[in-house]
Amino acid sequence: MARKRAQLAARLSQPQRKSQRLAGNSVKVQQDERFQCCIATASLDSTVCLWDARTMSSNENTPLVTLPRQDEDSGSGSGSGSGSGSGSGSGSGSGSGSDAEAEVEAVEITEYERKRRENIQRNLAFMQQMGVSTAKILAQEDTVLEDDDGVEYSLADEDVTKAVQERIYSVAFLPRTDRLVVACGDKVGHVALWSPANGVNGMKQENSGLPVALFRPHNLPVGQLIFPDSAKLLSTSFDSTVKEFDLRAAEFSVVYEADDNAGITSMVTAGTPQCLYISCDDGTVRLIDRRAPKVKTSNYLLHEKKINTVHQHPTLDFCIATASLDRTVCLWDARKISSKKNTPLVTLPHYRSINCAYFSPRDGAWLVTVGQDSYIDMFDTSSLADRKPSDKSAIELPKPTRVRHNNMTGRWLTKLHASWDPKRPNQFVIGCMEHPRRVQIFRAGRHRPVRELKSDNFASVHSINVFHPHLELIAGGNSSGRLALWRGEKKEVKDEDVKNVKTEKVS
Description:
Blueprint: H1 2-12, H2 15-24, E1 28-31, E2 38-42, E3 47-52, E4 65-68, H3 70-73, H4 97-106, H5 111-129, H6 135-139, E5 151-154, E6 160-162, E7 168-173, E8 182-186, E9 191-194, E10 212-215, E11 222-229, E12 232-237, E13 241-246, E14 251-257, E15 264-270, E16 272-280, E17 284-289, E18 296-301, E19 307-312, E20 319-324, E21 328-333, E22 346-349, E23 354-359, E24 366-371, E25 375-380, E26 401-404, E27 419-420, E28 427-431, E29 439-443, E30 449-453, E31 462-467, E32 473-478, E33 482-490, H7 495-506
Antiparallel strand pairs: 1-2, 2-3, 3-4, 5-33, 6-33, 7-8, 8-9, 9-10, 11-12, 12-13, 13-14, 15-16, 16-17, 17-18, 19-20, 20-21, 21-22, 23-24, 24-25, 25-26, 27-28, 28-29, 29-30, 31-32, 32-33
Keywords: Repeat, WD repeat
Region (Disordered): 1-26, 60-105
GO molecular function, one term: DNA binding
């Protein structure tokens, strides 16, 4: 490090060659307009240094301030959106300040950590003397998980299996409490049904054949899987078809096939399993009505570009949400859309395309979106429930809760999707690009995850994750065709812990 500083100072002392040398070594120099003596350098050694040009020489130099790269100081990087500072976090909000200080003092820290903290304090003091605002730095907090619901998840070695050969695009649980089956669809049209050896509550399952039953009903990626009941499985594909699998007969039948070769990207039941909304890559949403002997379809052009997902409000059947490649999420009144030009109830612009937009279950009080701008946005949509059908005024939603989250999966990984927990109205799961690999559970309106699932048996990005509708289970799929089954268990709360919490709240 000292040699690098000396080399840098030597180059700075030669103005005629400074620009060429610094550029060649990927070092950028910026001079403060107010303090001509102060210069800043950014180097490949992951540091930003402030120097006093009046005291530099051709020998060894010491910077005024060294600012380490943020992700070296922070615990979780950009995935959780938190930095390194000295904030207290949110946690449970209990305990007094003196107790917190005592706990900090009781923690044994390394010499490196002690020096790092001292360096941060010196940097803050210097920046304050220079008239530079340190509010953002002081506002940053260590990575602290929010209060969770008391469920601890674990991943056993036997709960990871190779289900399909290609990248997984969709995952779904069989909605039964006595039988554990996970379905997944891959890039080339396969649909697999996996029955883990250990079923519900760890009990052994009697599998009539192999643990994974593999079918190929489609030719292109299977974008959506839905169990409308415990006997049928619906699948959609980019090959323009919707198919239904009869679990008893082990046969697939065609429900719908687009005559214009539009690729189907997602699907949701429209109030009843006999009616389906599907989104397509040509910007249309189509309503499939299976109640009549002959299937009826209606096409609605809602976006100029591909629609990635369509979702229906759980209590307001007329309200649907679409997430598009055109960088917008739109809410629509299904009663007023037609085959002609349509106007959304509200348009929620984003900086880049949106992977998905889903209403929270039960009450639809939240709408979560996952975008390619590396943010998770949570919109408070509770006001929609108070809207009358005759109300023609524009809908205004509050500003969303924004969570910085690395969603840049690239071309080889399936795009990250959020998935709500049907058992809880405000909790969703999403994959994560951070190291070590993990799965994150968020609560609506919170900036930090309530839980991060990590395991020695988990070493890849699982882009698609879903909750079981009745049991404490999470299934996820990665881009090599593997499924992982996380099993949850309620933590036991002792009477003493409850009393302590109550006492702290009263005080």
